[in-house]
Specification:
- With 258 residues, the protein is an alpha/beta fold.
- The chain has a single domain (4-194, 226-250), classed as Rossmann fold (3-Layer(aba) Sandwich), CATH 3.40.50.
- The chain contains 8 helices and 7 strands.
- The protein has helices spanning 22-33, 45-57, 72-86, 109-137, 159-179, 197-205, 207-216, 226-237; strands at 13-17, 37-42, 62-66, 91-94, 141-146, 184-191, 248-251.
- A 7-stranded parallel β-sheet has the order 3-2-1-4-5-6-7, with helices on both faces.
- Helix 4 links the parallel strand 4 (91-94) and strand 5.
- Helix 3 (72-86) runs parallel beside helix 4 (109-137), helix 4 runs parallel beside helix 5 (159-179) and helix 6 (197-205) packs across helix 7.
């Protein structure tokens, strides 16, 4: 019988981007509860400070540094700062992202670039920097990329986002294939629309989007809860998923099967 300890992250250095709020903050908190040493990043340092204080008060370790995931130089500084602090990095969770709803004919180049940089470019360069360190230190590692069901099926009013998230899914497969020889597993969690200020605003702003969310979730839930997304992330980061790589785990209440 497999030990439940395989589902933990004891002693692992786990880095989470976009960790200041929402799903990212919950992923970081649950990684700590699973035994990890945390390294968290976001553009909003004040949120990271409060997260660090909570983790330290609970008896854990939490290092933070600001990072703009659309800026490659900032990404490299973030990963290097983690290595300087802990000496290694074992798990990277690429959680940071951005979206704005619009019809494809209404996006301009600036907004398109902002969305693609924040959702695809960031995953490429964050993963690249982390993988280089994992290869150098040896012992393998795990990368979990946050994608979206919008990267699996068509997603009206989310054209650039949908394309970028589909790119994340296939990029993950390629990373998994290239880095398997080093023991680095790379997987995706692709959630449905999950409760957050951004999601709730999108549903208010677009009645058609809100209607599709309510109709297409086969479990008849308006929104997924953040904990229903963070738990699969922790699983894929753990040794319990040691034979899983290159996989897109869709967490969508059955939306995409129809």
């Amino acid at each position: 019988m497999a030990s439940l300890s395989r589902f933990g992250l004891e002693g692992k250095v786990v880095a989470v981007t976009g960790a200041g709020r929402g799903i990212g903050r919950l992923i970081a908190t649950e990684a700590f509860e699973s035994g990890a040493k945390l390294a968290v990043g976001s553009r909003t340092v004040g949120e990271l400070e409060t997260l660090q204080a909570e983790i330290v008060e609970a008896g854990g370790e939490c290092f933070y540094n600001s990072v703009d995931v659309s800026d490659v130089a900032s990404i490299r500084v973030f990963i290097q700062s983690i290595v300087e602090h802990y000496g290694r990095i074992d798990v990277l969770v690429n959680n940071a992202g951005y979206n704005k709803l619009a019809k494809i004919v209404d996006y301009d180049e600036e907004e398109y670039d902002r969305i693609v940089d924040a959702n695809l470019k960031n995953v490429f360069f964050c993963s690249q920097a982390a993988a280089k360190q994992m290869i150098a230190q040896g012992g393998g590692g795990a990368i979990v990329n946050l994608s979206s069901q919008a990267g699996v099926v068509g997603a009206p009013e989310r054209g650039p986002y949908s394309g970028a998230k589909a790119g994340v899914n296939n990029l993950t497969r390629t990373m998994a294939a290239e880095w398997a020889e080093f023991g680095i597993r790379v997987n995706v969690v692709a959630p449905t629309v999950t409760r957050s200020p951004m999601a709730e605003k999108a549903m208010r702003d677009s009645p058609s989007f809100a209607s599709s969310v309510k109709e297409k979730n086969l479990l008849r839930r308006d929104l997924a809860e953040p904990g229903e997304v963070s738990a699969p992330v922790i699983f894929l980061a753990s040794e319990a998923a040691s034979m899983i790589t290159g996989h897109t785990l869709v967490v969508d209440g059955g939306w995409t099967i129809t």
